[in-house]
Amino acid sequence: MTIQDIRTETTPFEGPFHKPVHPAHFRILKGDLQVPFTRVELTNGDHFDRYATEGPGSDPEVGLPRLRDAWIAERDDTETYEGREVQLLDNGKAALRAGTHREEWKGERVAPRRAKPGKNLSQMHYAKRGEITPEMEYVALRENCDVELVRSEVASGRAIIPNNVNHPESEPMIIGRRFLVKVNANIGNSAVTSSIQEEVDKLTWAITWGTDTVMDLSTGDDIHTTREWIIRNSPVPIGTVPIYQALEKVNGEADKLTWEIFKDTVIEQCEQGVDYMTIHAGVLLRYVPLTANRVTGIVSRGGSIMAGWCLAHHQENFLYTHFDELCEIFQQYDVAFSLGDGLRPGATADANDAAQLGELRTLAELTERAWEYDVQVMVEGPGHVPLNLVEENVVLQQDWCKGAPFYTLGPLVTDIAPGYDHITSAIGAATIAMHGTAMLCYVTPKEHLGLPNRDDVKTGVITYKLSAHAADVAKGHPGARDWDDALSKARFEFRWRDQFSLSLDPHTAEAFHDETLPAENAKTAHFCSMCGPKFCSMKISQDVRDRFSGEMSPEDAAIGMKQKSEEFVELGRSVYVEPGA
Amino acid sequence: MTIQDIRTETTPFEGPFHKPVHPAHFRILKGDLQVPFTRVELTNGDHFDRYATEGPGSDPEVGLPRLRDAWIAERDDTETYEGREVQLLDNGKAALRAGTHREEWKGERVAPRRAKPGKNLSQMHYAKRGEITPEMEYVALRENCDVELVRSEVASGRAIIPNNVNHPESEPMIIGRRFLVKVNANIGNSAVTSSIQEEVDKLTWAITWGTDTVMDLSTGDDIHTTREWIIRNSPVPIGTVPIYQALEKVNGEADKLTWEIFKDTVIEQCEQGVDYMTIHAGVLLRYVPLTANRVTGIVSRGGSIMAGWCLAHHQENFLYTHFDELCEIFQQYDVAFSLGDGLRPGATADANDAAQLGELRTLAELTERAWEYDVQVMVEGPGHVPLNLVEENVVLQQDWCKGAPFYTLGPLVTDIAPGYDHITSAIGAATIAMHGTAMLCYVTPKEHLGLPNRDDVKTGVITYKLSAHAADVAKGHPGARDWDDALSKARFEFRWRDQFSLSLDPHTAEAFHDETLPAENAKTAHFCSMCGPKFCSMKISQDVRDRFSGEMSPEDAAIGMKQKSEEFVELGRSVYVEPGA
């Protein structure tokens, strides 16, 4: 079933809170499941439909409509329950000091859902049983592929649909190498900066520019409430690193962490609706010494927390020893594992070393253990890797982890350009995605230097969208190059307005054009500032086309050329182009 | 002979016009030939020496000292002569209208040099005869390699040293796959914007950030004078596309171009000191129809000029039919060919097609013809190419053109991101350089949209410097990764000031850091804004190192760990870090 052959009604969307990126963009809904796309209206009467992530838009204090409630209820395998009572500690020291939660979620409060006894809610579980869920149909429409491909890839573990039943606001999406390469944006406050409004604004900004998932990496105060605001307003899956919040609960003292505190934090987040969680269960005691002679040791925050705990207790990582219990929890909510690479290289010098690859072996073992519980899994990857060693990372991960989706941070291909690491990493990201990585975690210009602001989030998302798309094109993903061709055709035909509206960032494209040629008629002029009005290479190419269009051999062409050359001169040598002509 | 084993005196440079990028940067001169490097002084007492391109600095109205005059005179194979008289037409319509040159070069005027009858001045000619020139020694010092490698690579045509005898101000550099990957920055005015001062400022700005060569692509008025100012102030080789100026001389009417007008323009530029010229001699009549069914036809300006001429006259490209005469001219000044890819793809849809590869075959033929005259040659490449097709471009070029240096524009790996094409092209550039491309022509954020301003030039150069360096690291170029390791070590040791001064762009790195943590003591703090003062992953890694430094097996390590774990707790669980501690 593809969009072409299903009965599809295209409804222009009328949402009070939906703000399109560009006047030529419209949110449309296709098919019975009303799957959203961004329609780009072109000046030549055509249109181009793009995959859309920005959702219907929401009032931050109310949140999004609960799109999936009916689908979940209909499966009749969940129950609502009272759930864990929110504690002051969940919001950190500030709440403890104040004796109250400084901020509250203002929207509706809904009792959490979990699996009825003996049930398993994961999309992988349904897929293995051969069931096609609405989530799978929704994904097939978004990806314009056969729903059976979706089911079989999810069943095999080669793709995941991160979909906590307590985040029914989310629009189902899929992460796997057979599908469009996805992008994640990290947001979240920290000990040195904080504001819930800022973080919700970053979420909205990130999805506006096309991020496919968002991770809330908050480490400061009000973590619980910040996450509630983010999830209730997010049309994309939300990921977290629960060990960050757990560490706050033990006053930042890694050795004070316990399985009980961690488990309680995981349940707290399952009930809120977190769709996937980074779990650093591969940082084993025996791997820690392997980092001793690295240039930059352990750079993963989660990895070093667990290494610190192992050192303090001289015991095996409790995330590893309690992994089966985590699987039992995750299957009750359909939370997906993102197996963290706590020992990823933080410098090109440390790439693909014994510590990194040792951990990857363990992540492969854990992947298969999670699959025994039908829990969905993706595996995280580096980091800092020289360009010649990038491909090996995804080849080994796909082999060892039996095709489980790979989710990488960049990688950065050189260490010498702080301030430009969105670019050093975009090089590695496009390359590793071309070789089979399913999702790319963005890197912003602030990497290594500070916390991303609103502009950094936009730059990071757009840089990663172009990297992911470059990989889709390189993989020959069906229809991927149509977007390039639509824009290049507009460029060739001097449809400047269409060139802007088809761009990943229409505003920047138009602003850059106007810096050199601000005049309104330059938007329709058959020339650009590179060659100026007198001469234009695009124009002469069109003359060539007028003469030789259609399939024609160089020989046939040459024969026709003599007479054509005379016409050409008669035509007034139309290598000239007049402005606006 | 390498820098280690030659007697080298390191002289700090005292130039009134030299402005270092950063207070920790110094221009130093090494060896008998006083080869410049940028020394980065580190706070731990070490230093790191970087390849330097910015030259000694110059008063724009005086120009640079004539570094190579003595070397050239000593060879005694050149003669000075009166040279061609500068005509009003050389400066375009504005000069004709005004009846005078609107601007004049204010510095010293020196009679041009050319080869004595029967002599050949090219570095390739000397190299083939087994002669080691000062230019080759200079290059060997800059590249820290054996001078015989330089001579043999130049003799074989696998590398070039672009060095017009009429540009003695230039500091010799080499372009070839066995050497550091180089970067070119395009500047130049156009019909829609113009100012000599602006262009000289762009030149100075581009070399400040590390461009290895600069191309003056001016197409507007005052072309001759603008070029004079640029060459007299440039410590790096200058390239041009002479057909642009020739077209101005025939009022922009491609069909009015003649070999005589073109030849006169080439000699004009040879006498000024242009070091390499893009010649679109591969755009053959029979290839033109092959572009008819492309998405974007012919996008190279020079390519479409020659295609227009071929169409109008139905004759073979005069640059091809007169190629031997060009070789005879170039060998008298040591001007290098940059064989233009006039039929390069302008959209990913057109990559590696019959038109592009047909032209490449002809460029291979022309490469061998130029080598018969001992004229140095590099070959230009695309353009827009999907990432999976990038490697094929350099593999075919290196094979067909017998290893002649490849010089590519990007390539851009997707068409959908106008405004971000420095990034879409950096992905292709790093990849194609890793596979053997010798020089990368930068792309700025304004590509396809407008003319680069000062900021765009900086962004373009830095983006391409990081791409070129990523390729050097990926190729395992001797010493390339030392820079990465020096910066990563500074990062790991919280030497923030060193992290900034070792960056490609120290100002941006420091400014981004200060946005989150402006306080002065944050520059020495053992934490960063990502984790905050309470916890830091870098710090715990150092604890791991303290415990397990030196080569040690995981087993040995584990044995020692029990006692270490107790120490760790006694030590007050130093996963905490205090600000400034």
Automatic annotation (TrEMBL), chains A, B:
GO BP term, example: thiamine diphosphate biosynthetic process
Q: What are the recorded GO MF terms, alphabetically?
A: 4 iron, 4 sulfur cluster binding; phosphomethylpyrimidine synthase activity; zinc ion binding
Q: What is its EC number?
A: 4.1.99.17
Q: Which InterPro entries match?
A: ThiC, ThiC/Bza_core_dom, ThiC/BzaA/B
Q: What class of enzyme is it?
A: lyase
List positions binding substrate. Answer: N186, M215, Y244, H280, S300, R301, G302, D341, G342, L343, R344, E380, Y407
According to its UniProt record, which protein family does this protein belong to? Belongs to the ThiC family.
Functional note: Catalyzes the synthesis of the hydroxymethylpyrimidine phosphate (HMP-P) moiety of thiamine from aminoimidazole ribotide (AIR) in a radical S-adenosyl-L-methionine (SAM)-dependent reaction.
- Per its record, how is this protein called by name? Phosphomethylpyrimidine synthase
Q: Give me the gene this protein comes from.
A: thiC
